[in-house]
Amino acid sequence: MSADVLVVIGSGGMGMAIARRCGSGSTVLLADIGEVPADLVDEGFDVHTAHVDVSDGSSVAALAKTASALGRVQSVVHTAGLSPVQTSADRVIAVDLVGTAHVIEQFGAVVAAGGAMVVISSMAGHLAGGLPAEDEAAIANASAADVATLPCVQTAAAGDSGLAYAFAKAGVSALVRAAAQPWGRRGARINAISPGVIATSMGRAELDGPSGEFMRAMVAASGSGRLGTADDIASVTEFLLSSRASFITGADMLVDGGAVAAFRSGQLS
Predict the structure, then answer these.
(1) Cα torsion angle, 51, 188, 6, 72, sign
(2) Choice among 72, 126, 169, 177 that is catalytic
(3) First to last CA, the chain
């Protein structure tokens, strides 16, 4: 058994790409609410699997305990989430926002000195320019168990799933910023990545959904002019987990091919 543990929460396209790129030489704990693919075992990785429901704090606490029992928790990558076409606003909030709060809180108590976490968020949180200051402060200062009780969060959970998704992802940025200092006191770092339109099953479902036309227009107007790949996200994750990113914490890195830049600079027709 390796002394270092890489925890990857979510076994979709991004999660699997990240595990492949970052898992060599480590014990990989791959967790999901559903069945976890056996691909990595067949490819020679040292893989353990676990069931987790990130919207349930006790389930995330059990996962953190399992990770600690495997060795030194060096790297944590949280990719689990739901998109607007997949579910209702309340489930988006429960998984994407409250679930992230649980993961940050529970793994912040077990991550090793020198360790790092990357949370996969979304460019959706950047399109409107962020949360009102009072909402960000409320989310940043709440415990994971209390996030769902905040009035701004309850309002988002009762509304449109697309708006809830953007709110949740902006909230994730607030959580990451707030966690940077306590994680730093443990000698660890935490950052977010906000992908653009990525060619995963979730990304393709969104392209086929109500926002698909707008998303395709953003891609066409972007500097890169293409969809992203899961490996694009994995490569940035690898960097943020490494010692090369030792002075980066509390950040939310847009990895969107320039889509938000095009939108916010008025270049999207």
Answers:
(1) negative
(2) 169
(3) 54
Specify whether the CB–CB gap between 105 and 178 falls below 8 A: no
The identity of residue 122, as a single letter, is S
User: Letter for the amino acid at 13?
Assistant: G
Pick from 117, 121, 106: nearest CA to 52: 106
CB 23 within 8 A of CB 45: yes
DSSP state of 159: S
Q: Is 165 a catalytic residue?
A: yes
pTM score of the predicted model: 0.95
1 confidence band (pLDDT: 50, 70, 90): very low
Domain 4-264 has CATH 3.40.50.720: yes
Any catalytic annotation for residue 211?
A: no
Q: Which of 6, 72, 122, 165 is catalytic?
A: 165
d(CA 140, CA 127): 20
**What single-letter DSSP state applies at residue 98?**
I
Q: In which residue are the tokens 């000195």 written?
A: 113
